[in-house]
UniProtKB/TrEMBL annotation:
A Gene Ontology biological process term: regulation of translational termination
Organism: Rhodobaculum claviforme
Chief location: cytoplasm
Domain Tr-type G: 19-288
Pfam families: EF-G_D2, GTP_EFTU, RF3_C
Annotated binding of GTP, by residue: 28-35, 96-100, 150-153
Protein name as annotated: Peptide chain release factor 3
HAMAP family according to UniProt: Rel_fac_3
Keyword terms of this UniProt record: Cytoplasm, GTP-binding, Nucleotide-binding, Protein biosynthesis
Annotated compartments: Cytoplasm
Protein's UniProt keywords contain Nucleotide-binding: yes
Gene: prfC
GO-annotated molecular function: GTP binding; GTPase activity; guanosine tetraphosphate binding; translation release factor activity, codon nonspecific; translation release factor activity, codon specific
Length: 536
């Protein structure tokens, strides 16, 4: 597998601190092994000392509340986070993507903060629905993708079949980086096609890194000392076929998102994980330019960044709110004063945090590509830009129109004000859309997937002590209204019964009929109804 393109194709050399950074996410269908793989990454990255720690922490956290119990029951991960660790001279920033399809909006935004993704698939199941959806989001952004085919220690599909399925289902070229030897109970390990060496799995110790046997190609006589004759013959035949039939790795094609290298392994047995990490380190892109009205290059000296996620009440005891910022350029230092572009105000960033494994730590510095958390009291919202003075506006972080609308009712009518506060907080987090109708009282809450109502109700109860009910609404669709101010106002006044404002005060048209939306488009060319809104 030749390295056909320089690391920073067509780009100036990056300062070493930036060049060594790799910011990526893992995409997968629930149960494919994302958590296990993350844990092994952290283990090899020295961020945790013992396998089981991530899960153990997860369990400890989950038992704390019904909400978390729900997360556990449904096998979803709702609390996204970012984790930083070092591996062989590289700084890895792993951004966690929420796993359930109901959280597509959140996931989409998370993927705006990374430069590459690892796609984990289950060797027995191949490409599953959620993998496909997430893959499509990556494709929209032309993200380079590395593939890890997991659970090879179990009965898996034929290797060619898996590769074919990815190629056909996802319309991407697949270049094998390793080739499995046997499968299920017979799985011995892989032949590493990049380094021409044998990797043997240790079944006795799940946390032991594979034993590597250096060889002179597949015909090296020492192969026979490690691989039984039948499997060896099969391996030679398959690799010959693969080399003849499948694409070979092309770095440029990978960086452009047209080709994915695939590694086979078993995360739970720590097998294939190191090779995957080396793959990210060697082939993965360093921090890429970001769209901020103009192209913002990572090597620019002025520090810039954008908020892609806001998480409130990470620790229910502290009522804090953390904005996750992807640094787009420069060398950030603690205490810096940054311009908060939306409000035009200066903010001193005195306690920026880096997320190391499951803990967070105040950091003295960070570089383009890093994800820092900035505790704040609600000033920072999704899509906000922080700069050293320039009025940048980062694009590509859309808000999607919710597909389900319901009325929110406080279980205790005396607590309506509290409910408003809680709802606004979730709206700012991006966990839901909250609309205040022009006529009447109360709020209409919009989400992308039904499960989000349950999550919201549990969180409002848990974090604010407020029982809440979500009841059927007369509306089913929401569209943002834009146009000249006078035209929008006239339109709103003529359609009061359908109008509301979102948490930013922007006008929204609510309806239950697609027909209505078409009618407005036909009869009111002076306004525009849109299903997405760029975060302001
Ligand atoms: P997810 O985050 O993608 O949802 O997957 P997770 O890592 O939680 O893994 C899902 C299940 O698959 C877990 O089993 C995990 O142990 C298992 N698993 C992960 N990697 C491998 C592998 O390489 N081989 C095999 N055979 N299994 C693997 P579980 O029974 O749901 O949980 P647990 O009781 O093991 O914790």
């Amino acid at each position: 597998m030749p390295d056909t393109a320089p690391h920073t194709a067509n780009r100036p050399a990056l300062p070493p601190e930036i060049a060594r950074r790799r910011t990526f996410a893992i995409i997968s269908h629930p149960d494919a092994g994302k958590t296990t793989l993350t844990e092994k990454f952290l283990l090899y990255g020295g961020a945790i000392q013992m396998a089981g720690q991530v899960r153990a922490k997860g369990e400890a956290r989950r038992t704390r509340s019904d909400f978390m119990q729900m997360e556990k029951d449904r096998g979803i991960s709702v609390s996204a986070s970012a984790m930083s660790f070092d591996y062989e001279g590289h700084r890895f920033n792993l951004v966690d993507t929420p796993g359930h399809s109901d959280f597509s909006e959140d996931t989409y935004r998370t993927l705006t903060a990374v430069d590459a993704a690892i796609m984990v698939i289950d060797g027995a199941k191949g490409v599953e629905s959620q993998t496909r959806k997430l893959f499509e989001v990556c494709r929209l952004r032309d993200l380079p993708i590395l593939t890890f085919c997991n659970k090879m220690d179990r009965e898996a599909r034929d290797t060619f079949e898996i590769i074919d399925e990815i190629q056909e289902n996802l319309a991407i070229d697949v270049a094998p980086a390793s080739w499995p030897i046997g499968m299920g109970a017979e799985f011995l390990g892989c032949y590493d096609l990049i380094h021409d060496r044998l990797e043997l799995m240790d079944r006795a110790d799940r946390n032991k890194v594979a034993q590597t046997v250096r060889l002179d190609g597949l015909d090296d006589p020492r192969m026979a000392e490690h691989v039984p004759e039948r499997l060896l013959a099969q391996l030679r035949e398959e690799v010959e076929m693969a080399r003849g039939l499948l694409p070979t790795f092309n770095h440029q094609s990978f960086l452009e998102g047209h080709l994915t290298p695939i590694w086979f392994g078993s995360a739970i047995n720590s097998f294939g994980v190191r090779e995957l990490m080396e793959g990210i380190a060697h082939y993965g892109p360093p921090p890429q330019p970001q769209r901020g009205g103009r192209e913002v290059a990572p090597e620019e000296t002025a520090v810039t960044g954008f908020v892609f996620k806001v998480q409130a009440n990470m620790d229910p005891k502290h009522r804090d709110r953390v904005a996750f910022v992807r640094l787009a350029s420069g060398h950030f230092q603690r205490g810096m004063k940054m311009l908060h572009v939306r409000s035009g105000k200066q903010m001193a960033i005195s306690a920026p945090v880096l997320f190391l494994a499951a803990d967070r730590e105040v950091t003295e510095e960070a570089w383009a590509g890093d994800i820092i958390g900035i505790p704040n009291h609600g000033q920072l919202r999704i899509g906000d830009a922080l700069t050293e003075g320039e009025a940048l506006k980062f694009t590509g972080i859309p808000a999607f129109a919710p597909e389900l609308l319901r009325n929110a009712r406080a279980g205790d009518p005396m607590k309506a004000k509290h409910l408003e506060k809680a709802l606004m907080q979730f709206a700012e987090e991006g966990a839901a859309r909250v609309f205040k109708p022009m006529l009447g009282s109360g709020f209409i809450v919009g989400v992308v997937g039904a499960l989000q109502f349950e999550v919201l109700a549990s969180r409002i109860e848990l974090e604010y002590g407020l029982p809440v009910r979500f009841e059927g609404s007369q509306f089913t669709s929401a569209r943002w209204v834009s146009g000249e101010r006078v035209a929008v106002e006239a339109f709103a006044n003529a359609n009061k019964g359908h109008m509301a404002t979102d948490h930013d005060g922007d006008p929204v048209y609510l309806t239950r009929l697609q027909w209505d939306i078409d009618r407005v488009a036909r009869d009111h060319p002076e306004v525009r109804l849109t299903a997405t809104k760029e975060s302001t």
